[in-house]
Design brief:
700 residues; 24 helices; FAD; Butyryl-CoA Dehydrogenase, subunit A, domain 2; alpha+beta; FAD binding; binds flavin-adenine dinucleotide; single chain; six-stranded mixed sheet
Amino acid sequence: MAHRELTSDVSDGKDEWERKERLVQVMSKDPAFDKRGREWMTRTEKYSRGLRMINRMYDLENTLGWNRQDTTVATGLLDESLPISLHVTAFEPVFLLQASPELLDRYAALTATRGIFGCYLQTELGHGSNVASLETTATYIPGTKEFDIHSPTLSSSKWWIGALGKTATHGVVQAKLILPGGEDMGPHLFFVQLRSLETHKLLPGITAGDIGPKAFDGTPANDNGFARFNHVRIPKEHMLSKFAQVTDDGKYVKPPHAKISYGGVGVYVFILPTSDLTSPLFCRRRCCISVHRWLPPLGGSQQETNKQYNTAAVIAIRYATVRRQGTKGHDGLEKQVISYPSLHTRLLPILSRAYVYIGMGRALSRSFQTMAQRLSTGDASLLAELHAVTSGLKVLCTTSSVQDLENARRSMGGHGYGAFSGIGKVYADMVPSVTYEGENFVLDQQAVRAALKAFKNLFGDDGKSRPSSSTLQNLPPSTYYLRLLIDSKEPPVLHDASNNSHPPASSSSSSWNDPETLILLLEWRAALLVHEMAQTVEDPDATIYQRVSKGTTEAFVARRVGEMISGLRANSELKKQDVGVLGRLYLLFLQTTVESALSDLLSFSLLRIQNPSRIGASRDPTRGLRMAIAKNCLALLPEAIGLTDALGFSDWELDSALGVYDGRVYQALWDRAQLEPLNAKEVPDAYEVGHLDSLLFARS
Ligand SMILES: Cc1cc2nc3c(=O)[nH]c(=O)nc-3n(C[C@H](O)[C@H](O)[C@H](O)COP(=O)(O)OP(=O)(O)OC[C@H]3O[C@@H](n4cnc5c(N)ncnc54)[C@H](O)[C@@H]3O)c2cc1C
């Protein structure tokens, strides 16, 4: 595989690839970004190191003349969650898009130059997903034209807020707006100064700090924090009032549209009236930010995001290729562990997902651009579609990446458990992604709600209406699968899954290698799941929400993968051989997605038992699929290293003894173990002070 051409393709073009190479050259040699020895640092040292890295990055921006995109990519190259990311991805966009012109005049420039450093304070000790029940209050006082920000209870303490613990000087606070007459208008956003710009001390009335270490010691350089407000006064202008406002005498001014939404560059912020806080729309801002982080090219390049996912594939496949274990062959060498089917059938699907999510990011990026253009002309018609898509994708991407990281780690045996494998740290940092920016099980409900709404729009509340042909033609990508439920002759009859006219799959081996068959199967599964949900919505079974969310999102993704496969043929930048390899990889994605959907496919009788009357033959209707996966993995095996190299990681970025480019993993492990502080002294201090001494003595 000619991975250089592919690298450029994966990196969103040659220019992006060259940008990344240029930045890696600089950063990997700069002592500020030296990763050696960080395993031994305390939490406090890691936090300080994080701040040093941010400072150095902006020094480099100035001295080397980096543009904003260079700095964004450089930030993405750092494999650490740093307080700056909250300033850039959460605080700044919300502030810029929702602050009044007067507030922008005073603070926009300071925000851009980090004269002030922000965080986003929504979650409280007592409430996360249920934003409508947040307790922090912002009471308007007409006499002084101020808001009084107050935390009335312990459970109203802001909690989990990234960069709040020790770093941020300002924050956007989500608080219930209380009018002078005591009327509660529900959560609104307020711009609050937290710390002095001279001394960095907390302002009067504010109690704040770091919430402490996180599970698996994840994101140690990020100071997720708590805060309580004791009647803190802020000027009236500090309400983020581009849309909803309060008049000087304390009257509420509603946003101009019932569900006003606003799109910005890179991150999309959606503002809703308070009555909508629990509606599906409320989640938009959060899930779109998630997708921004999770689907690579949305921010402009592959380097800045999602590399955690790709990291798992690269490290595990490189290691499995050099690791030998088992009986010796004719060449006198033990087998490469990647040659074991139980290993490569685990790892190659991870690689296929890494590639597919890069392509998905690109597709979604284009959709966001279209939406932004339409929004600028007042056309909000794409919002609901993108909301549906991003809700489901956030769940799908984060859930699968966390699982894949752990699978990749386990594939490396004992060495996978060592910190030097590089995967444990990534896992620890990534595992909360299933919780923040929309808890996945809560977001499932958003995806389901959107699917049910589309179903009802087509078939009516009773499921008996017949959609017009123009409605069908205009089905958006997120619900394209619903077309399958239409019987053109006898409207609105839904196909019976046992009807011979469908489903599309016969289980011959060729059909399992046909992308269109696999896509259709996934679309049928989505359509039947949504139909099932619509019939049983009053009495849902234990897992229907998760299955509908997953099923509909996977149908959407599968159709996009079909487009990626067609697009390969038209891609003149790629060599013919690479087109073939990528086609196989995408096919593997579809095959393994179908395999993971088998319980649904079998539930809906979408697969028929083979040779029902023949004794001695396989009766398993899924065997053909699993055989096709096994063969496809074998065919891809020689390409695995080329495909991982094409993801374009340097050793500095990976920071993994097991994933080193030259394959000298034992040397790398050995060298790193020598750095262990316990090894600094032949006889440890514990012996000198008597602990070890008495332990050994007791044994003898
Ligand atoms: C690393 C990290 C960084 C974060 N950074 C920030 C930040 O910068 N700013 C900020 O404001 N917040 C931040 N958060 C908080 C985050 O947004 C919340 O944790 C998240 O919204 C989930 O809320 P919760 O933790 O209260 O969980 P809960 O809402 O209490 O959920 C607990 C369980 O209940 C289930 N559940 C809840 N509601 C429903 C429902 N309606 N239906 C079915 N099941 C339900 C959930 O699925 C979950 O299993 C961060 C969190 C983490 C872990």
